[in-house]
Write a structure and sequence with these properties.
The chain is mostly helical and 185 residues long. Helices cover 70% and strands 8% of the residues. It folds into 2 domains: 60 residues, Orthogonal Bundle (Arc Repressor Mutant, subunit A); 118 residues. It has a 3-stranded antiparallel beta sheet with strand order 1-3-2. About 3% of the residues have low confidence.
Length: 185
């Protein structure tokens, strides 16, 4: 089971959050959350900015090097490879079977992806690289607007990528949705 610190990191993958939001989302007491935030600030996993009367906490680069997030991203990468057909599900499962965090990220992502359809920071960078490749591929197709067949291929690809990145969760789903909003304008 993920520790409070791990759950804080997963929550902050979505973006900045204040104390009350974290407390309500994680369902922990104020003293428990306060202790963990102080510890994570001291270890330089987090930083904060003051906005009005609130402190908004966010992850620092060091958090992405933590064993927990490295394992989490390894599980997401294996799930992404299975969903894209780069590897079969059994191979993906074997890649993460020895690591409880990676295994949970892998299985929950696979389940989230298929249900709607009826390390190190390097794992995160790999996923961002895949996202950038997908964005580049979509942008190449956008340039050809007068062919119905190309538009249908583009729309089909975008629907697939919507499902994929929403199932992978933050931060990839957030980055993908920002991109989608930009191309729709």
């Amino acid at each position: 089971m993920a520790t409070v610190r791990d759950r804080i990191m997963l929550s902050l993958l979505w973006g900045e959050k204040d104390f009350t939001t974290l407390k309500d989302e994680l369902k922990v007491s104020s003293p428990t959350l306060s202790t963990h935030l102080k510890d994570m600030l001291e270890k330089e996993y987090l930083e904060f900015k003051i906005e009005g009367r609130r402190k908004l906490y966010r992850l620092k680069e060091k958090a992405f090097q933590s064993p927990f997030l490295s394992s989490y991203f390894r599980g997401l990468k294996a799930a992404s490879d299975v969903i894209r057909g780069r590897i079969d599900a059994l191979t993906g499962l074997r890649q993460v079977a020895e690591d409880e965090v990676a295994l949970k990220a892998f299985t929950s992502t696979i389940l989230r992806f298929y249900q709607p359809l009826n390390g190190s920071r390097d794992g995160y960078r790999d996923l961002i690289s895949v996202l950038e490749e997908d964005i580049s591929g979509v942008e190449r197709l956008i340039g050809v607007r007068d062919l119905d067949e190309i538009r249908e291929v583009l729309n089909s690809r975008i629907r697939f990528l919507d499902s994929l990145y929403s199932s992978l969760g933050p931060p990839l789903s957030v980055l993908w949705m920002r991109y989608r909003t930009r191309i729709e304008e």
